[in-house]
Design goal:
This protein is 72% helix and 0% strand. By secondary structure, it is mainly α. It has two domains: 100 residues; 196 residues, no CATH class. Helix 2 runs antiparallel to helix 3, helix 7 packs parallel to helix 9 and helix 8 packs across helix 13.
């Protein structure tokens, strides 16, 4: 026997173009939205804001999910759970990747010197230098560990080159070790690497927009065509454009707009693993520092 929700979905499929049934369609959407909103709840690392993002991201797929359901004995809720589980895995991966990327993009509270925003009498160009000096000098470390922290801060500044103004960059570098000439060379080299990434991303964005436009034209043509023999060919073209869009989306997400660790390793003549580990330990230290608001929070030797 068909359950009530499955019956509602079958009625929706039969009356999707009936304007007199719009109230029923909205009621069905509202009922499903409440279920979808709470679906990510078993993922303990996702909060209610993530639930909202999950729902907003899935709403564009709702009509397709309702229309693609084919009743063969299993209820619609079973079909919906499978679709939501697949989408949640993808959403969770993107969410975690976003959190990891944000840890770089927010610049770990070093480049944003909060005291400088409150007191305009401090020159802007000393913002980054003062913050790094305060972190190193008040850390309570041995000279050897201070030097290690200074080298990690150098990696950090190079990693965030696109967020650092040139005055900040040149003022901070004598404290980090390299000379002003080396600092200018580093900046020019990394900006050239970033320029190539921007150009690559812009090219991929144009390709994606072109394929999205062609997909919309093909779908409109398929919806308005009268000859049923032409529909399979148009559907094949639509699937081709969807595959291209998926591949282009993956390529766009794989291009971070920050210098890669390989670029920094090549620039400083270091192994890539040294750059990876240096940034990892610096982020851990800065995270503990931000949480404790105490520069002595660095774990003892």
């Amino acid at each position: 026997m068909v359950d009530f929700l499955t019956h509602q979905v079958l009625v929706y499929q039969a009356t999707v173009n009936d304007k007199d049934m719009e109230f029923f369609h909205r009621a069905l959407y509202d009922e499903l939205n409440m279920y979808i909103y709470s679906f990510p709840g078993y993922k303990k690392s996702l909060n209610e804001e993530d639930w909202s993002d999950f729902l907003l991201g899935f709403m564009g797929r709702m009509h397709g999910v309702l229309m693609n359901f084919n009743y063969r004995g299993l209820s619609f809720i079973c079909y919906l759970n499978k679709v939501l589980s697949w989408y949640l895995r993808s959403f969770y991966r993107q969410n975690q990747k976003g959190l990891d990327d944000d840890w770089v993009y927010v610049r770990e509270s070093i480049i944003e010197y909060e005291y400088n925003r409150r007191c305009e009498c401090i020159p802007r160009k000393y913002c980054l230098l003062d913050k790094m000096v305060s972190i190193i000098e008040s850390s309570g470390m041995t000279p050897y560990r201070k030097e290690a922290l200074r080298q990690r801060l150098l990696l950090f500044v190079l990693k965030n080159i696109s967020f650092v103004e040139e005055d900040d960059f040149l003022t901070a570098f004598p404290f980090l070790g390299p000379s002003a000439e080396e600092a200018l060379f580093f900046r020019k080299f990394l900006q050239e690497c970033l320029r190539k990434k921007y150009e690559r991303k812009e090219l991929l964005s144009r390709k994606r927009n072109e394929n999205y436009f062609r997909l919309n034209l093909t779908e409109r043509k398929k919806a308005s065509i009268a000859d049923p023999h032409l529909i399979p060919g148009l559907e094949k073209r639509c699937n081709l454009y969807r595959r291209r869009l998926k591949k282009l989306d993956e390529q766009l997400l794989s291009i971070p707009l920050v210098p890669s660790n390989e670029n920094i390793a090549f620039l400083l003549h270091l192994p890539k693993g040294s750059v990876d580990s240096g940034l990892f330990y610096l982020r851990s230290y800065l995270k503990d520092l931000e949480e404790s608001r105490d520069c002595r929070a660095f774990p003892p030797d």
